[in-house]
Specification:
heterodimer, A: alpha/beta, Rossmann fold, 2 domains, seven-stranded mixed β-sheet, six-stranded mixed β-sheet, 34% helix, B: 72% helix, transmembrane helix (chain B)
Amino acid sequence: MTPAALELDRITKRFGPLVANDAVSLSLAQGEVLALLGENGAGKTTLMNILFGHYRADEGEVRVMGRPLPPGQPRAAIAAGVGMVHQHFTLAGNLTVLDNVLIGSEPLLRLRSRRAEARTRLLDLAARFGLPVDPDARVADLSVGERQRVEILKALYRDARILILDEPTAVLARPEAERLFGTLRGMTGQGLSIVFISHKLHEVMAASDRVAVLRAGRLVAERRTTDTTPAELAELMVGRRVARPRRAARAPGPPVLTADRVTVVEKGETRLDAISFEVREGEILGIVGVSGNGQATLGRLLSGLARPSTGALALGGRDMARLSPRALVREGVGRIPEDRHAEGAIGELAVWENAILERARDPAFARAGLVRRAAARAFAADLIARFDIRGAGPDTRTRLLSGGNMQKLILGRTLAMNPRFVLANQPTRGLDEGAIAAVHARLLEARERGAAILLISEELEEALGLADRLQAIVKGRLSDPIPAEEADTRRLGLLMAGVWEVPHAA
Amino acid sequence: MRLERRTHVPLAAAALAPLAAVGLALLLAAGLIAAAGVSPLAAYAELLRGALGSRLALTETLARATPLILTGLAAAVAFRARVWNIGAEGQFYGGALLTAWAGHALLAGGPPVLGVPALLLLGMAAGALLLLGPVALRLSLGVDEVVTTLLLNFAVLLFVGLMIEGPLRDPLAFGWPQSVPVASDLRLPDLVPRSRLHVGLLVALAAAALVWAVNARTVWGAETRAAGLNPRAAAFAGVSLPRTLLGVAALSGGLAGLGGATEVLGVTGSVTTNLSPGFGTAGIVVAMLAGLHPAGVVASAVFLATVFVGADAMSRATEVPSFIADVIMSASLLAMVVALLLVTHRVAR
């Protein structure tokens, strides 16, 4: 019998009093796709970091093709054919795709890098595994989906035989995710073995051969995917039942925010092309689409960081196109940014400082240019209590919060001012089920209260569960809106593929 | 071996880091002193006596600390907002030159109550302008301010040389290249009679207190910190990066220029090209040892002044050259950089 491609044998890892992994044993057969399912904090990432040599296990052993891996050495893991695609990409934004793939794969002392050969090899891998990339594009200019492809290619370029993907779909839209899983299937056909970490049931069901469920550091179950159901996995993962809230019927009021044929040109490129939409009081408008189709610019436009080149943007009937971020906030615009680490909060600042960051010059938090620290701390304490932000006090460094709690902080500071319009850009990206349900409930509460909400999402379930109407964004253009009642995954899938344009052309 | 970010930085470690760095630097220098054939303990005792052992020594050390406090604050203010001002030396000279010229030609004969503050403000303005240019270039064209501010140091020093050999040359200086002197009633009064310690020390201490208040208590101070830590998130939250960074540039350059102004008005009365024995660059060390904290700046400025003044005395009494002071300064900067890394990170294997 051939040895398993990968074996984890009773891995235990402690961080102080916390047992992140408790005697976890797993094996992966060659050509198999194993899903590692668990909530945030269940120990999935720790386990994979041990496997890859980022951490050293306190007990236990990792074996690749029957041979033990020396612990704590990523180089040894790479040499043994283990490739890891991290959730937070490890790419250098100012270098090209080719440079990023090459970094670290060439001997330091070689005088010239063999770029021509490397390019051929990269393009060859890209074609073979269905991961199209432009080797000369600057990584900073790529969408997240494209960056992920670069990460995977980086691992393949180093001859990975076992690929570990940490939450690979956290940043992908449904069609992109489906394509990724199709790609992964093709890879197993060529002998690769794959472990992917996920907390999304539908993709685990769709893409894996076998599922291992982690909860609180323990392996609680292993199932053949064909022998289990999403409901069973959900219970195993959470330990109880959770359900996302659904919106209740509510008649919308008058339009709060209207965009009329707005075009945005950034760095000489038309990012948004004559888009029109309106968001009404007490309504959620969902903008769905594959990442990199103009969502980021739409987010910047409605956050006060980008200006329309032509077209009109009005808030409550008044022009808002020229308003700065601060002025927008004063006008009652709440903004939940796409990337909470890069834009939403500053990790090194205390929770209270982030809580008032957008309104630092608001009379509630500043007097005569001085920070009203007591008021700001009280506000933060109030947010922590009202929005159930766990593991934090007003003076906690914000980077110590988990993703879900950081998002609750951003959501809290946004909703606490009772905004009449809310931009929610990928509000649940990377969050676990519990946190997603909490964020959804808050957004629906705001809608109930009469806020007009624009939800930009790459998650179809999310858009279908929350939005009253939906528009698809493709290459900077928006489809006409369709009511949520008429939308299903198939129709949305077509819209997101840009199929709505066909009838107009015909 | 890898470095991992600590989730929690112990306060004691952060506070002890500069002391450990200084200790290590003194230990390294002790090796060199021993190599020069002198007992390190005896040499350091000589150094301490020379810097702190008498009233005169003490005033000399504090006089030397005064410009270091101001250039240290200049670096601390800038670095906190991630504006890499390496040009405090040039800004110092810019402030000194404008002060000397105005104190001789523009404001001489006027009432000192107005003249002295006006001269200090002019010195600040000159320093501020010298940093506003590089920061404006960074904002508009993305020019790295490390390069521009560093190179401006040489340009300013050459300009000072040009001026004091030419239009601003003091005709009564017996051929010494030295600028025209500031009117004597516009000089800063001495703090201790018959010493070089002048009221500038109080100006520097007030500046430190002011910088602390601005950093810790004002909205602007919070915004500069946010802009330094994460410019994208700061911009998203509505902090105007150009306005914030230009403000930082004005304050940082102004503080360095104020250093030059107080040195001229308090100590020399005129400008020479050796007015500063590297106060600008030493200011960077002062700020780093201080962890960019204004109170720490005062402490580390006094420390470095002690080393420099004491090393002179030590070299007179022993065989150790006074250059050992530069070694101690440089070694403590290097040790501090390592110490800071170890405070925020831990070594994981």
